[in-house]
Amino acid sequence: MGAQSYSFRHFDLEGAIGCLKQLGLQDMEFCGVHFPANREDPGFENVKRILAAHGVRVPVYGVVGFGGDASANRAKFEFAQALGIGVLSADPAPESFDSLEKLCEEFQVRIAIHNHGPGARYDKVADTLAAVQGRTPLIGACVDTGHSIRSGEKPHEVIQELGSRVLALHLKDWAAGGEEQRLGEGDMELAAVAHALRDIQYEGPIVMEYELEPENPVPGMQAGWNRWREVWR
Fold it and tell me: pTM score > 0.90 for this model?
């Protein structure tokens, strides 16, 4: 269990880590708000030092874009390898998949297609299933439960349909036809999501993402985290 660093976008890197620690967690899916997906970036070694000093693990990073430039795609895999990242949550263009398939096999880093709600390239579960059909099992989905609700789908049913293709999870709640809510206060059925994850024998990262209250997100996230723990038990 971890958190998406976008939840802490109003904090610098060490401030975001402080928020994570307040939640009693040590896994973070970082995004470009806190540092870029580039091992050649001048600040990269300092990022590694700070993460190591605080004992923060980065099992997943994203959301990362991929296109038809194989060398640019490779650079993002090299970044993942350098930071020990096992999954890149991604918005890959159709022309990127041949390159990504080779890179996933070479680096043993997985690509998890992120659904981003109505109007996005990967809106509904059918879009992701079509994209991964016939591809390596190392290419799958990062299910964003909040965006699934925005797209008129039930998160637990999305998880069941994707099955072993679920490689990462953004745990976020939403009111159908409305706005984001604290985890457990929207229309996501927490128990159904937990059962679906157990049914598919999911073992990947579960990442809370919370876009409300950016100046002070910890209390809202803590309330949701407590609800999730009770449901999981």
Answer: yes
From CA 128, how far away is CA 108, in angstroms rounded? 20
Q: What is the pLDDT along the chain (233 residues), one digit of tens a residue?
A: 999 999 999 999 999 999 999 999 999 999 999 999 999 999 999 999 999 999 999 999 999 999 999 999 999 999 999 999 999 999 999 999 999 999 999 999 999 999 999 999 999 999 999 999 999 999 999 999 999 999 999 999 999 999 999 999 999 999 999 999 999 999 999 999 999 999 999 999 999 999 999 999 999 999 999 999 999 98
The tokens for 55 are 């004992």
Cβ(101)–Cβ(108) below 8 Å: no
Select from 161, 158, 233, 223 the least CA-distant residue to 186: 223
- Convert 123-157 into a string of H (helix), E (strand) and C (coil): CCHHHHHHHHCCCCCCEEEEEEHHHHHHCCCCHHH
Residues 209, 195: Cα–Cα separation, whole Å:
20
Q: Are 209 and 171 in contact (CB under 8 A)?
A: yes
Contacts of 17 (CB under 8 A, 6+ apart): 28, 50, 51, 54, 56
For the CA atoms of 155, 158, 163, 168, the dihedral, rounded to the nearest 10 degrees, stands at -60
Give the Cα separation of 161 and 195 in Å (integer).
13
Euclidean distance between CA atoms 26 and 37, whole angstroms: 20
Do the bridges between strand 2-4 and strand 60-66 make them parallel or antiparallel, or are there none, so unpaired? unpaired
Look up residue 161 and give its amino acid.
E
Give backbone dihedrals phi and psi of 11, rounded to 5 degrees, phi first.
-120, 150
